[in-house]
Amino acid sequence: MHILLIEDDQTAARWLIKGLQSSGHIVDHAADGEDGLHMALTGHYDLLIADRMLPKRDGLSIIRMLRADGDAIPVLILSALGEVDDRVEGLRAGGDDYLVKPYAFDELLARLEALSRRHLDIAAPARLKVSDLELDLTTHKVQRAGQTIRLQPKELLLLEYLMRHKGQIVTRTMLLENVWDFHFDPQTSVVDTQISRLRSKIDKGYPNPLLHTVRGRGYRLSEN
Q1: pLDDT at residue 43, as a whole number
Q2: Which positions of the chain have pLDDT values less than 50?
Q3: In whole angstroms, how far apart are CA 11 and each of 18, 64, 120, 130?
Q4: In this structure, are residues 94 and 65 in contact, taking their beta carbons and an 8 Å threshold?
Q5: DSSP code for 102
Q6: What is the pLDDT of residues 171-210, one digit of tens each?
Q7: Which pLDDT does position 47 carry in this prediction?
Q8: For position 122, what pLDDT does the model report?
Q9: Signed CA dihedral, 214, 217, 220, 223: sign only
Q10: Which domains does the chain carry?
Q11: Is 120 exposed, middle or buried (0-12, 13-18, 19+ CB in 10 A)?
Q12: Helices 10-22/105-118 angle, 10° precision
């Protein structure tokens, strides 16, 4: 899943992002309510995790604005406010679930999976497809021309990001920020290495390559 996390506690955010990425998800992060609302309104996400107490704009006002805009994205509220009245207020504001801090990561992950199942559109299976390459977002199963391709967790994240941006040029910086969560260039060949490994798995042995290098600009996943 592509998840938006709105959390102002940087330590908590880093811990949560690391856990979600290790579980096979792509995570974008906003550290305050204004940035979070802007990203939620302009981005394309499968699920939103929002802290309740945020600088600039609180989490419940973000949810109310999204619902008023007709956005039905599943929302998990995180908060240290755990009284019954607090939880009721969060759910009535438009939240789909409410998790009190401190929480166990396994419980958070299970709640996210439940929200995803609950909001899954049966008429539109959770799949990404480029030509004969398919990624099932629920099972993380990858196939090309009906043949299963086994990917490591980071390769899976990389492929999902590329497939969500199919036909677009994706820069090295975009990949570092969204797949590796590096907001700086570590001056390593990590992107090139993973691209090479991914290409060998999804293109080798097939007549038409899908993963293209755009010299001086980045990479593009497309049929041509």
Answers
A1: 85
A2: 122-124
A3: 11, 27, 31, 37
A4: no
A5: S
A6: 988 898 888 877 666 677 899 999 999 999 999 999 999 9
A7: 93
A8: 39
A9: negative
A10: 2-118 (3.40.50.2300), 127-221 (1.10.10.10)
A11: middle
A12: 60
The structure tokens listed for 96 are 């789909």
Contact between 112 and 94 (Cβ < 8 Å): no
Distance CA 60, CA 50 (A): 8
* Residue at token pair 């959770």: 126
- 5 beta partners: 29, 49
DSSP-derived letter for residue 213 is: E
Nearest to 63 by CA among 92, 42, 86, 43: 92
Output the pTM of the full model.
0.57
- Identify the pLDDT of residue 23: 86
Asked if the bond preceding 102 is cis, omega within 30° of 0, the reply is yes
The residue with tokens 């090479």 is 196
Give dist(CA 161, CA 172) in Å, integer.
12
pLDDT value, residue 183: 65
